[in-house]
Amino acid sequence: LQTGHSCLTRSYEKSRTKLAQSHNICCCCTRNCPIKYCSPRKPAVSRMAFTSNDVTINNDSRELYFDKHVDYIANHGNDKNDYEYCMTEFLRMSGIYWGVTGLDLMNKLDRLDKQLIVDFIKKCQCPVTGGIAACDGHDPHILYTLSAVQILIIYERLDAIDVDQIAKYVASLQQLDGSFFGDKWGEVDTRFSFCAVAILSLIGRMDEIDLEKAVNFVMSCCNSDGGFGSKPNAESHAGLIYCCVGFLSITDQLHRLDCDRLAWWLCERQLPSGGLNGRPEKLPDVCYSWWVLASLTIIGRLHWISSERLENFILSCQDSETGGFADRTGNLPDIFHTLFGLGALSLLGDKRLKPVNPTYCMPEYVIKRCNLKPKVMVL
Questions:
Q1: CATH (residue range 254-378)
Q2: What residues contact residue 135 under an 8 Å CB cut-off, 6+ apart?
Q3: pTM score
Q4: Are the CB atoms for 104 and 110 separated by under 8 Å?
Q5: pLDDT class for 62, splitting at 50, 70, 90?
Q6: What are phi and psi of 181, to 5 degrees?
């Protein structure tokens, strides 16, 4: 049996179902999560976690390669002729956010050139729309606008951009049904709903949008399994669940969630390796350590999974030579997975890192400095 609130092996499936039927619960986990059957004839016994898609980890040490991670982030992007640097121009702004936040969590923010970063962001704000692009010369997008605002909030340099134009840009992307486009090309996704309220709450301009319609759209994306997809009737996905739960945390609407059902779906993402995947039958990935843990933290159910096994998985994905975290053990590290590996460890209570806010994925002290109080549930 796997410890914590997670799956059983295939050989126990029949006994698991019988026990669930006798106790009127949907699983026979160690904590007897009180999720009732959807129907007396069809008990909601999930088989999602019975998957052969997992990895083997070899992690004899619980050491966090702290100094190597600091160097990995601080030196990232120094070589402008590097192939990886050239090929990731389209997400440069988010890359800077991942690096700035990661170093701040390690109390090493001084390793980056603050003024250079601020000047870069100023060049990326579109004078026509007010939105911010991933890189100078690219089209603005709500994703990169959020990254830029997060960076400037951390640096206390929001004055470097035109905040009024940012607010107007975000408001211009809201549609009649309450959803948001990501940019002028018209893609709708719940990620963009989260970005919109995150940006506007950080700059103090939540009154710029129709909040009631925005909430109703997000809730229309809720599925019968308790999860959320990118749009109505789309498959539940851990990353999108984080966006919707974060959205509801910012807008004080967490009471509209079926938290037990949602938490059960999220806990089913934990595999025997200890890692978390984003949806059924997929491999575990360090980034889902953040999406799943942050969601569980916001709804007050972090204790439903095996934290120790997850921590071992995350630490096994470090590169002991270069620093940084990869998606899985043995793969090459990148700055994206490095931030979310560090963020997940912070949520798990690693004292070597600053506390991280689960809603904004920013250091907790920054959110308190802004007098923001995103809602979390306490059991």
A1: 1.50.10.20
A2: 89, 90, 92, 93, 124
A3: 0.86
A4: no
A5: confident
A6: -75, 155
